């Protein structure tokens, strides 16, 4: 399960992966369901081991537990869609 110690760490992860991922909706009123699951069911908001196990599979913690690995569902947007968002491929 991803854990972000503050908002800046979370936004840095979004910039590094989500903004370049084909699963992040272009609509501002929608978000990636994997990101939303982590946002709404983080460590402070649940005690369900099954939920934690699923979240761990989606965005795993690093082996040393100090950071988050790349999301399991990350898939790079095609270059022409990255260019449309002003992002380098
Ligand atoms: S699938 Fe993963 S990397 Fe892609 S937008 Fe969702 S949380 Fe971010």
Question: What does it look like?
Answer:
- The chain has 89 residues and is mainly alpha-helical.
- 38% of the residues lie in helices and 0% in strands.
- The protein has one domain (7-84).
- Residues 17-18, 21, 23-24, 32, 34-35, 71, 73-74 line the site of iron/sulfur cluster.
Summarize, please:
The chain is mostly helical and 89 residues long.
Percent of residues in beta strands: under 5%
CA-CA gap between termini: 27 Å
Helix share, percent = 25-40%
Q: Unreliable runs, pLDDT <50, ≥5 residues?
A: none
**Extended strand count:** 0
Give the count of helical stretches: 4
Give the overall pLDDT as a whole number.
Answer: 86
Q: Layout of helices and strands, plus pairs?
A:
Blueprint: H1 7-16, H2 33-40, H3 49-58, H4 79-84
Residues 17-18, 21, 23-24, 32, 34-35, 71, 73-74 line the site of iron/sulfur cluster.
């Amino acid at each position: 399960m991803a854990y972000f110690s503050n908002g800046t760490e979370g936004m840095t992860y979004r910039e590094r992966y989500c903004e370049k991922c084909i699963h992040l909706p272009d609509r501002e009123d929608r978000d990636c369901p994997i990101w939303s699951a982590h946002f709404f069911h983080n460590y402070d908001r649940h005690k369900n081991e099954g939920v934690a196990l699923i979240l761990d599979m989606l965005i795993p913690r690093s082996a040393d537990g100090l950071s988050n690995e790349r999301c399991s569902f990350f898939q790079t947007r095609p270059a022409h869609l990255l260019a449309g968002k002003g992002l380098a491929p």
